[in-house]
Design goal:
The protein has helices spanning 12-22, 160-168, 207-217, 232-245, 263-270, 303-322, 375-379, and strands spanning 29-33, 46-47, 57-58, 62-65, 75-76, 78-82, 97-100, 112-115, 119-122, 125-128, 138-139, 150-152, 173-177, 181-187, 191-192, 203-204, 221-228, 248-252, 272-276, 280-281, 287-290, 295-299, 331-336, 347-357, 360-365, 383-387, 399-404. It has 4 domains: 12-28 and 179-322, 3-Layer(aba) Sandwich (Molybdenum Cofactor Biosythetic Enzyme, Chain A), CATH 3.40.980.10; 30-50 and 146-177, Molybdopterin biosynthesis moea protein, domain 2, CATH 3.90.105; 57-139, Beta Complex (Molybdopterin biosynthesis moeA protein, domain 3); 331-404, MoeA, C-terminal, domain IV (Beta-clip). β24 (347-357) and β25 (360-365) form a beta hairpin. It has 7 helices and 27 strands. The two termini are 35 Å apart. Helix content is 19%, strand content 29%. The protein binds ligand LQZAQKY5 and molybdate ion. Residues 281-284, 300, 302, 305, 372 line the site of molybdate ion.
């Protein structure tokens, strides 16, 4: 197939659908303490046993009163004190008020709290400078969460504030799915590690650092097998090693049609290719398949292609296995500020910077070019300019669809 031959390429949507229906969520569950739960995916829902707040309490430092007691002079003698953690005990005598602090239980019978700033301390008691409405400054029991309420659903990736919510209902341990294990390696005789000297024709392995970092953000365990030379046996060994221990094997390079492109060949030998070659640019030679024990994600060697295909496809496959399901990127319509070159046949994911201007939302291509070796185009971007498969060149001012970068890429 020549570089411009687009026959037999699978549209992105079809590839993604096939990948998502092939990957079934993992089922192994473990229990972790709340402190270790960030980024994990819940296996069971979490329900509140008791209301939150657990009791009617004061929203302000001030005085708790019975509204009916406020007479013309608005002065009530002070009877006692309610502090957070030290409730007022006993019953409030008619015509009295209680000093109360934020978070302290509102004494029974009191139906409003007046903040300190709206009162005056006299020898005879407290003068109220306002007449509050019933319930003023009282936070009701169960206002946030009712008993029995589901506060966290199953199959949710826990974010920082979820941990607060879970703590607020007193839950100390959480059932989560086992962490996904991902084996990772780059291939290529020319691929060196940063810090090493380059021979003529070599380049540095930029794929592994970015894919590792993206995997970290997906909260997986990584088995990093490094860079494997273009040697059939070495690539085969790396595949077998990763497959034994992992749920996914992610590689970069060797999926094209070159003479040392063994990745695809070995996948066909050890497992099964589900699909290879998508109608997208960059990333045409993306491969997805099944190994004896794991799923295979074969990223193209070009750095932009590897990163974009991992973002659009690989990460979705991992989320599917993790149980959260895929997370589509949000989309926006914008005006292109410049002409964009585009050949019909593949869907383009050009890299761009979108901004809101007085003319609406505009997008400008990022980097010094859109080649799949131009990493700066991706580093300077905050979105993809997603140009439909059949679309041709775009003129400045035309509308284009943006796929916005999510927190994985931002
Ligand atoms: N005859 C054809 N040639 C190519 C086609 C095609 O359809 N027909 N597709 C092109 C496209 S598109 C891509 S993308 C690449 C994908 O090739 P491979 O996945 O086989 O990758 P390599 O050939 O090993 O490398 C491509 C390119 O990327 C550099 N590379 C590889 N690994 C890394 C790494 N870890 N970090 C940084 N850069 C890396 C490598 O040196 C090459 O320059 O194939 C096209 N060819
Ligand atoms: O489609 Mo390749 O992944 O552009 O360089």
């Amino acid at each position: 197939m020549g570089c411009c031959d687009v026959t037999g390429l699978m549209p992105l949507e079809e590839g993604l659908n096939r990948l998502l229906s092939a990957v079934t969520p993992g089922t192994d569950v473990e229990t972790v303490p709340l402190t270790d739960a960030l980024g994990r995916v819940t296996a069971t829902p979490i329900q509140a046993q008791a209301p939150v707040p657990g009791f009617d309490n004061s929203a302000m430092d001030g005085y708790a009163i019975r509204l009916a007691d406020l007479k013309n002079d608005q002065v009530l003698p002070l009877q006692g004190k309610a502090m957070a953690g030290q409730p007022f005990e006993g019953s409030v005598e008619p015509g009295h008020c209680i000093r109360i602090m934020t978070g302290a239980p509102v004494p029974e019978g009191c139906d409003a709290v007046v903040m300190q700033e709206n009162t005056e301390v006299l020898d005879a008691g407290i003068r109220f400078l306002e007449t509050p409405k019933p319930g003023n400054n009282i936070r009701r029991a169960g206002e946030d969460i009712e008993p029995g309420q589901e506060v966290i659903a199953a199959n949710r990736r826990l974010k920082p504030v979820d941990l607060a919510l879970i703590a607020s209902v007193g839950c100390a341990e959480i059932n989560v799915y086992r962490r996904v294990k991902v084996g990772l390696f780059s291939t290529g005789d020319e691929v060196r590690q940063p810090g090493e000297a380059l021979r003529y024709g070599d380049l540095y392995d930029s794929n592994r650092p970015v894919i590792r970092a993206l995997l970290d953000r997906l909260d997986v365990d990584i088995l990093d097998l490094g860079t494997i030379p273009d040697d059939r046996e070495a690539v085969r060994d790396a595949f077998l090693r990763a497959d034994v221990d992992c749920d996914f094997v992610v590689t970069s390079g060797g999926v094209s049609v070159g003479e040392a492109d063994y990745t695809k060949e070995i996948l066909a030998e050890l497992g099964e290719i589900e699909f290879w070659k998508l109608a997208i640019k960059p990333g045409k030679p993306f491969a997805f398949g099944r190994l004896p024990n794991s799923w295979f994600i074969g990223l193209p060697g070009n750095p932009v292609s590897a990163t974009v295909t991992f973002h659009l496809l690989g990460a979705q496959a991992i989320r599917q296995f993790q149980g959260t399901g895929p997370r589509p990127l949000p989309r926006l319509t914008a005006k292109a500020t410049t002409d964009l070159r585009k050949s019909p046949g593949r869907m383009d994911f050009q890299r761009g910077q979108w901004t809101t201007t007085e003319n609406g939302i505009e997008v400008t291509p990022s980097g010094r070019g859109q080649g799949s070796h131009i990493l700066t185009s991706l580093a300077d971007a905050n979105c993809y300019i997603a140009l439909e498969q059949d679309r041709g060149n775009v003129k400045a001012g035309e509308e284009v669809t943006l796929w916005l970068f999510d927190d994985l890429m931002a």
